[in-house]
């Protein structure tokens, strides 16, 4: 029974992989087509994320993010020409919001969700609508000012948030001995500190400010001055749905360009909000003002020297890190491709029939299945086919996406290299093989010392093209979560909305890499060229008469 379940799961993943490489048009129409056919758009909302998304005293969902989602709904109505489009509200929590988005239950998530690299692997985000920071709230009487004051204590954070993940990582890195409790929502977490079950509550500061302001005795609380990270919020939508994202981004951009965002912001952050009439009095931050200003799209090449919202460095650092993963993936894959490609290429020219058939099968399998499908199969399916312990180990490797990309790209390219090597060997005069045998060399020695060295010299130009393809094809690895160069540019676009700068920089880097490879390989060609052969830069001599 257990094996049956594993086979079913493997089959489902394979179908998903094949679906993802289906016709682009279908993918572009995804959510819009669904809304058109059902006549309903479903908004995910929170029940206690003041002032972004929460229930008022009449149990109606209201908030800053709800108002912004309303503008998006208006844009969808106009796009689909459906003025009577029904809006359905579906409650979500920190733990359920991404799964409910992925399985199609909700179409937009209108709450307080951080846009970060890890989540971008699963979902997409529209333009940043707020920027906050991760801090902790505690009782003033406890006199807790920073992380060191929390050593050995019990803290709480909301399950499924970036906050609980970050404090867990810091706890391990700094050996703080903190006990971390998960809460189902913000209200429960705050109550745990209020009742003494936890010493502090880690969450985005704007949510902490709202909880403190709404509490019975706001003066008893204090929020840490130390910010553990910067958290940009975005409205969440399904991944790889460009037609719907275009409508969503367009609606948000219109709100920013017309200045309507200022009125909406003032309503929820600078005015009394229901149900208790509390005024959070949180002016728009300089970072968020910059986001609003950039929506009008002004070219800004200085963006690469600005600090990225994830707090890990500048946007230039993000690009450099992506370039590093691209080079590491391409070089490691090329070593595998070159070694296996030469072996398979030689095997396909040997006199032994079963070896030739084995080589032919290798080439046909890896050359005829699209790289994207192979990437999904290696990442999702192969671990399920292995013994449970081995599969679990593979899935839990710290850099599993990198190792998977290297193996997949190396095997895929090896089939292409094998074809080049086979063609190079078969282009040599048959007398060379016979001459080697006549000199007393064995067949393997003839290949090693005569045929293969000559063939490699001949096929050096097409091998250059294959090396360039490895560099470019490494971008496919972003689909399994490897943040290489293309994924880094995409991340910069998601965070800064300087799409042209991000992808222009990535394009120039790819061009520079390819130029370096071409120049290096041409020098190698000239150095290894044998006069009178293809690739020597000289014309073949004409036969005498």
As residue ranges, the low-confidence spans are 1-28, 534-545
Count the helices. How many? 22
Please give the largest β-sheet.
Answer: 6 strands, mixed
Classify the secondary structure makeup into a structural class: alpha/beta
The helical percent reads 55-70%
Percent of residues in beta strands:
5-15%
Rg from C-alpha positions? Answer: 29 Å
Number of strands: 16
Give the integer mean of the pLDDT values: 85
Q: Ends: how far apart?
A: 77 Å
Describe the structure.
This protein is α/β, with parallel strands linked by helices and 545 residues long. The chain is built from 22 helices and 16 strands. It has helices at 2-20, 24-28, 30-38, 64-80, 97-102, 117-120, 162-173, 186-194, 205-214, 242-257, 260-269, 286-294, 315-347, 353-368, 371-385, 388-395, 400-426, 430-438, 443-458, 460-473, 485-496, 499-528; strands spanning 40-45, 48-49, 53-55, 61-62, 86-91, 108-110, 123-125, 130-139, 154-158, 179-183, 200-204, 221-223, 230-233, 236-238, 272-273, 278-279. The strands form five sheets. Strands 8, 9, 10, 11, 12 and 13 form a six-stranded mixed sheet that branches. Helix 14 (353-368) crosses helix 17 (400-426) and helix 15 packs across helix 17 (400-426). The radius of gyration is 29 Å and the shape is elongated. The N and C termini lie far apart (77 Å). Residues 1-28 and 534-545 have low confidence and may be disordered.
């Amino acid at each position: 029974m257990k094996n049956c379940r594993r086979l079913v799961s493997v089959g489902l993943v394979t179908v998903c992989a094949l679906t993802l490489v289906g016709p682009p048009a279908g993918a572009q129409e995804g959510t819009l087509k669904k809304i058109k056919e059902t006549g309903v758009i479903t908004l995910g909302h929170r029940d206690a994320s003041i002032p972004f998304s929460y229930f008022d005293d009449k149990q109606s969902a209201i908030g800053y993010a709800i108002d912004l989602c309303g503008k998006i709904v208006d844009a969808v109505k106009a796009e689909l020409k459906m003025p009577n489009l029904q809006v359905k509200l579906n409650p979500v929590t920190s733990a359920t919001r991404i799964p409910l988005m992925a399985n199609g239950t909700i179409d937009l998530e209108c709450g307080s969700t951080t846009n970060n690299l890890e989540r971008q692997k699963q979902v997409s985000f529209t333009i940043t609508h707020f920027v906050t920071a991760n801090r902790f709230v505690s009782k003033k009487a406890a006199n807790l000012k920073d992380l060191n004051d929390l050593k050995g204590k019990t803290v709480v954070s909301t399950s499924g948030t970036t906050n609980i993940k970050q404090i867990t990582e810091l706890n391990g890195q700094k050996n703080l001995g903190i006990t971390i409790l998960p809460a189902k929502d913000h209200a429960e977490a705050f109550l745990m500190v209020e009742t003494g079950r936890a010493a502090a509550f880690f969450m985005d500061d704007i949510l902490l400010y709202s909880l403190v302001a709404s509490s019975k005795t706001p003066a008893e609380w204090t929020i840490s001055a130390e910010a553990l990270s910067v958290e940009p919020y975005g409205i969440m939508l399904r991944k790889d749905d460009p037609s719907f994202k275009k409508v969503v981004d367009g609606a948000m951009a219109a709100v920013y360009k017309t200045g309507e965002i200022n009125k909406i912001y003032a309503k929820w952050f600078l005015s009394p909000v229901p149900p208790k009439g509390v005024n959070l009095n949180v002016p728009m931050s300089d970072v968020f003002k910059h986001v609003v200003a950039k929506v009008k799209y002004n070219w800004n090449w200085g963006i690469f020297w600005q600090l990225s919202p994830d707090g890990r460095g500048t946007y230039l650092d993000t690009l450099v890190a992506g370039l590093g993963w691209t080079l590491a993936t391409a070089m490691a894959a090329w070593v595998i491709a070159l070694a296996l490609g030469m072996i398979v290429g030689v095997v396909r020219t040997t006199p032994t029939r079963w070896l030739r058939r084995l080589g032919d099968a290798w080439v046909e399998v890896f050359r005829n299945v699209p790289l994207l499908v192979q990437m999904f199969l290696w990442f999702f399916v192969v671990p399920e086919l292995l013994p449970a312990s081995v599969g679990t180990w593979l899935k839990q490797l710290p850099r599993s996406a990198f190792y998977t990309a290297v193996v997949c790209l190396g095997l895929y390219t090896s089939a292409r290299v094998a074809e080049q090597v086979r063609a190079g060997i078969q282009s040599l005069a048959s007398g060379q093989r016979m001459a080697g045998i006549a000199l007393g060399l064995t067949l393997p020695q003839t290949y090693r010392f005569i045929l293969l060295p000559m063939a490699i010299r001949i096929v050096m130009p097409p091998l250059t093209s294959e090396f360039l393809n490895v560099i470019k094809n490494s971008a496919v690895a972003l689909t399994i979560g490897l943040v290489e160069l293309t994924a880094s540019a995409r991340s910069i676009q998601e965070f800064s909305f300087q799409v042209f700068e991000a992808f222009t920089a990535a394009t120039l880097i790819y061009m520079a890499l390819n130029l370096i490879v071409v120049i290096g390989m041409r020098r190698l060609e000239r150095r290894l060229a044998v006069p009178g052969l293809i690739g020597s830069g000289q014309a073949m001599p004409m036969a005498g008469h």
